[in-house]
Amino acid sequence: MVVSEGTHDFHIHKGMGLVKDVFSKESIMKLKGNIGIGHNRYSTSAKSEQVNCQPFVVYSMHGALAVAHNGELVNKGALRKQVLGRGVGLSTQSDSELITQALCLIPPDGEVNGPDWPARIRHLMQLAPLSFSLCIMLKDRIYAVRDPYGNRPLCLGKIMATNTDEINDGSGDMDRNEEGWVVSSESCSFLPIMKYFREVLPGEIVEMTKYGVKSIDVVPPPIGKSLAFCIFEYVYFARPNSIFEGQEVYSVRVRCGMQLATEHPVQADMVGSVPESGNAAAFGYSKQSGIPLGELLSKNTYVGRTFIQPSNRLRQINVALKFGPILHNVKGKRIILIDDSIVRGNTVGPIIRLLRRAGAKEVHIRVASPPLKYPCFMGINIPTREELIANKLKDTKEFAQNVDADSIEYLSVEGLKTAVQKEINPDSKTGHCTACLTGEYPGGIPDELTW
Amino acid sequence: MVVSEGTHDFHIHKGMGLVKDVFSKESIMKLKGNIGIGHNRYSTSAKSEQVNCQPFVVYSMHGALAVAHNGELVNKGALRKQVLGRGVGLSTQSDSELITQALCLIPPDGEVNGPDWPARIRHLMQLAPLSFSLCIMLKDRIYAVRDPYGNRPLCLGKIMATNTDEINDGSGDMDRNEEGWVVSSESCSFLPIMKYFREVLPGEIVEMTKYGVKSIDVVPPPIGKSLAFCIFEYVYFARPNSIFEGQEVYSVRVRCGMQLATEHPVQADMVGSVPESGNAAAFGYSKQSGIPLGELLSKNTYVGRTFIQPSNRLRQINVALKFGPILHNVKGKRIILIDDSIVRGNTVGPIIRLLRRAGAKEVHIRVASPPLKYPCFMGINIPTREELIANKLKDTKEFAQNVDADSIEYLSVEGLKTAVQKEINPDSKTGHCTACLTGEYPGGIPDELTW
Amino acid sequence: MVVSEGTHDFHIHKGMGLVKDVFSKESIMKLKGNIGIGHNRYSTSAKSEQVNCQPFVVYSMHGALAVAHNGELVNKGALRKQVLGRGVGLSTQSDSELITQALCLIPPDGEVNGPDWPARIRHLMQLAPLSFSLCIMLKDRIYAVRDPYGNRPLCLGKIMATNTDEINDGSGDMDRNEEGWVVSSESCSFLPIMKYFREVLPGEIVEMTKYGVKSIDVVPPPIGKSLAFCIFEYVYFARPNSIFEGQEVYSVRVRCGMQLATEHPVQADMVGSVPESGNAAAFGYSKQSGIPLGELLSKNTYVGRTFIQPSNRLRQINVALKFGPILHNVKGKRIILIDDSIVRGNTVGPIIRLLRRAGAKEVHIRVASPPLKYPCFMGINIPTREELIANKLKDTKEFAQNVDADSIEYLSVEGLKTAVQKEINPDSKTGHCTACLTGEYPGGIPDELTW
Amino acid sequence: MVVSEGTHDFHIHKGMGLVKDVFSKESIMKLKGNIGIGHNRYSTSAKSEQVNCQPFVVYSMHGALAVAHNGELVNKGALRKQVLGRGVGLSTQSDSELITQALCLIPPDGEVNGPDWPARIRHLMQLAPLSFSLCIMLKDRIYAVRDPYGNRPLCLGKIMATNTDEINDGSGDMDRNEEGWVVSSESCSFLPIMKYFREVLPGEIVEMTKYGVKSIDVVPPPIGKSLAFCIFEYVYFARPNSIFEGQEVYSVRVRCGMQLATEHPVQADMVGSVPESGNAAAFGYSKQSGIPLGELLSKNTYVGRTFIQPSNRLRQINVALKFGPILHNVKGKRIILIDDSIVRGNTVGPIIRLLRRAGAKEVHIRVASPPLKYPCFMGINIPTREELIANKLKDTKEFAQNVDADSIEYLSVEGLKTAVQKEINPDSKTGHCTACLTGEYPGGIPDELTW
């Protein structure tokens, strides 16, 4: 976190690990100020090291500057060359430092005068239009910015005053009296003391000061290009109670499950999910199919997330340790198991084996998203093509045989789009990036990284 | 953990914190041996300090001895006086040290000769019949023991040989070829490489050596007393896929939910649970009532368990941070929220408020166990009577008003017993401790602690 | 440290590592009380583990008891058997636990009644007369005890009141107004706010309460045995400004150096020491011989003590890193290098080589104590006989050749005794243990350890 | 440390704390390469934070660059403005980052072409001639550079091949067979496996590659300015066995002590030092005066250096804890106590009080350097003028009265210069910075820091 009291002497506290471990009461007390930005990094392109922790802070000729970045620059190689070519040394390989130094550099003559930061941000949008959501803090303001494609999410919330009854009751512990504004990648983080206000629009620059929030500009995507909000936020990344494009993520996932039931029905006694990622889709599948919904696996929360585990081998043991089959709903039953997505496919086999050993008569796998086939260069950490199960196997029949499933079926790309876009106002401009499913990249094929 | 290679030179590794933090690869590699016992302490009576970590190890006149203990001695005061009176200094206040030293002491003449450990264990059962499940390790054997009331659980499992097909597939990482035996408080811990075998019986002493397991004795409860297995293991403590008395805990909880629907029906659009503790009961309630089952709250797993939090105030904020309402299933709906139990009642209010702010039309609370009213002296950490919500309020109507619920209802004691005992073979002797619900203590009123 | 507020609920804080790392401001603030004892353990017989940290605390039938122990029980094997034979389990191999449990046990009929702790201590002195200095704390008193041989040191100091002028000036930070008493192994620890009072006598039991200090008893050594204060405290262990038997350690070491100059003179230009252990003896050698005293080696304090280093190889590199030769006093000169003692002899060679490379014309080694040849069973950590350089080489000539010295000479045993005893009042009973030099053990040959 | 295997992918390991704590065996093993630079920072101007740890590494348009810096830029404010004015953001306030970015920037047209690093270094010398010793590492070379005034030290050493006899013996643990070169602030760091070669000259740029070392250029100080090597290195900072300008620091300090005895003689029984800083000067004073040299204070090495302690109050207690008076040399004696310098004067009073309480008849303080009166802007951490004792008191008489000394006298500035320059070849250009003593700054009065 970086916090300002209105001067260029920012207070900074950063560290590696979970938020609760990095921030002690003592370190929080030192972060005095009226505005601040924070960042919780899930390392993708640059290494997981202290030096890459965000926000990135520099002192420029126009004062202190802190930048927090969600996303990944598709053309980082070209931008890096430009910045280095101006005689700047870069101390890390992170996009955040690159963006920060690019914002500091004197723009070509005539374009930007002095500390005109919105002009500098517009200039950055030309140099690197994809993908980022940014929080740029100066001593007395924050610019909240989404890239012109709207690839990464960003939304505004309002800090509610304490004399509002519902808040006094809700939190029980609020004693600051001012209103304020907040910006976040996901609206779920606003609970319980803030309220969702609206999304930052694709290409929009919102200025936040003590006088409130102000929309400075909305930059359209490059000519001939469409908006491309990451569809995988709906499928996998976002928390179910977050809101994008006016709709709750959970609702979208329920519709994915319903669509899946329509596309791939099967006779069974019980529908359940791989907890908790498939819960919403399982609810939708049960609703559409009329097959009862029930817990099939009990999750042991004391084991970490499989996405992060280092080796395949360990992953397989861990899966088995992580889930305990519920005999009541499994034994002697034909079951449909819903998951939100299948990436490497390492966990399906062990889970099916657990269910069969617990007495399941049939196990049908239904996946509430299409097969993942292509890499993402916009900030989502997808394994190499060779590691993706969808690129390894001929078809779902072979897949089912390999993992001893009675059947495996995926939601179609069209089905997913329908589920996502059905409830969006057709007048609103919208568009979704499905590159990881279709290979159609919104900004074209990215250049190679160099330095 | 304490491990033996067959000599009196036990290898010991203990520490404070989560298992994954205490045991590194390095420390595990040093724990060489053929037999071993471990303990994961949830501090109840004695303080949470390094010195109270189990297993407790001593060197006695008959060799090294390690003891791991689940439960709490009801008459610890009297036993403590006896042990101190023999001239032994006790370095902690833990029951485990007390039990260990009591086992070491020379029994009164004529009763026990030399290293006859089963006789010493029987003697201990007379001195302190309630409550404990024990693992007592000597250099070449382990005694697995339940107290004569059968208050705390204990069960045997079998380590499966790797040439069994299903295991090779299931774990993928097993390369030791021997069979073996394991003993645990809960059968859920046997997955994925061990198999549930049977319960250790109330009062039973099971000897585990390299030659296998052998039942040494089964000591009945004191004359005039009945078996008293803790009913709260079914309600709250145990993992849903554990097995007690021949039945899966999840099944019992489903029956509690069904019984609850019968006792306290209500018109509603959606049944859901406080995740994840109320899941099974909500499933039962939905099944019995026909009202659809759905997720109402999304749980943020990065916040700790409320039972452990230090202050009431913090607890209230944390609850609100921990759960995000799912608009899809809440907005404009009449909802029934199921929880497994209500202890202090601190979390109900904030949760209802979250649901109302998310647009719930009605919120009915149904609790799948009777009100908790009395302290436990047998190892369950229940707050003082003043802190228990059931002792603070006149009735459920007042409770409902206080927390802005449309209604609150509990399962009856009889209903709970029915749900628990319905599927148990009526021929098997059985009996359950309901002291925390009814004030009827199986071993009478405990003496006071002294030292 | 263990501290008492006058009740049996002692406050305890213990840990591994340096005092400054184990005790934070926070942990010190929790140690409230009027009396307390502490211990800084240099691990000798029992392993360096948390569980062996002293003081050892137990709750006995007569209340809480804390014991801190300096020394090592020669007959620990026999005492251990006795304690185990009474049915006590011992959780460590430390002498301190053994002593504590032995004090708790009910003494044979007729000898001790109830909580008569001095009688229990006298009984312990019979069971194990060698060697210990003990601080035994009860809720309202401390017993300071030396073994009947007087093998380990112990002395009393007085905490000076703050209204004394010299203290107010001296410390500048003293704001408690009471006087008090303190007991320590070495008087040097009394500075700057306490004053040396007197030694605890061999075999003496001193009781310290809020009413002051009181000598309870002085137990003589077993019949036919003499006092045996460890002579190696003078030679090596004690800080130079500590006082034993009425004389400053530094003075004794100066006399050792003078005696050494008399016994083994040599023509040279400069006398210096291996800093800082040989400083006092070098001063004495220079004084006696008239050869100028000067620094030969500059010590780098950022490298640890060689006694503790794990491998021989590392030790040799470390020695070279630790000392830098001072050209001004070494180049072109004949030098005499004084050390207080030579144990393994690993460091002499590398040091001589450093001096020769720095241009020394001659290097003569003079050691201010006799060769170390025998193990100590009374608390001094001396390597095995095979590791002692004095047991490896034929004579000092061979030694000198091996390490490229022009000569090496030791102080004689008689010379050491003379230097130590010269200034002691001949009327006072005294006697010194020289077992490590002569093999003459004051309590006979110790039994073997068993358990 | 930063290490290169000949590519731009430098291996970096940095941390806060002592070298032995920051570098584990594991982290050292990862630092593979043929060349490397390290830095041990004693924080002066920039804060003691992870982010300010050196070497500072950036990736420039001409490849990776690592910079380690000893000293402080006098005109950092002006240079900072220049760098910021070029559009570079600076992430810290450290001179090292400033120097690194200044080296990266494209120099004004015509002056430097592309990756001509020596030209860039010469350009830096013009922008900021005072003060720095630098190690600048590229993928395959290191530039060792001293500023044109020669204010900070830097010297070259040679890594000796292992087949040389003396090395095989000296280290006992050398198994790499190549020769190599090393550069360091102090020659004492070369022991035991490297050999002092020569100083890097003031203004010299030395290039170190696998082909050896090569002098690229020697830049003279600005016109009208003289060389200005920090005289305080001789007085206080350097280790006694380091070599500057062809002479051992210890020898210079001995001459300071002799000069002091000549300037300020006094009748006394014993000369001693505040260990260990005054040792050499006490030796010189004793030699010149004929008064015997002896230890007066025994130092407890387990207490930190007073220069670093946070509060005055704590410092006074700590001083008393740190030194124990040696009665043998103090009691009943007239003593002269030598210290190398007096900065804040906090420790003199407590030390004198210790000596008087130990029975000293007279205590005369002699300081082997002139009074410290002015701040340093070239890298030496001197307290503010108000904190310097020499600026607080009228004269040494008042000083002596305040601290209860019988007399206090300082070495004169001329005396110090004589002692330093006496043995330097009069033909060699030389010159010393005495700014902290005289207020005469070699580069004029520094500008103020701004950003």
TrEMBL record, chains A, B, C, D:
It comes from Acanthoscelides obtectus. The keyword Heme does not apply. [4Fe-4S] cluster binds at C230, C376, C433, C436. This is Amidophosphoribosyltransferase. Pathway: Purine metabolism; IMP biosynthesis via de novo pathway; N(1)-(5-phospho-D-ribosyl)glycinamide from 5-phospho-alpha-D-ribose 1-diphosphate: step 1/2. Binds 1 [4Fe-4S] cluster per subunit. It comes from the Eukaryota. PANTHER family: AMIDOPHOSPHORIBOSYLTRANSFERASE.
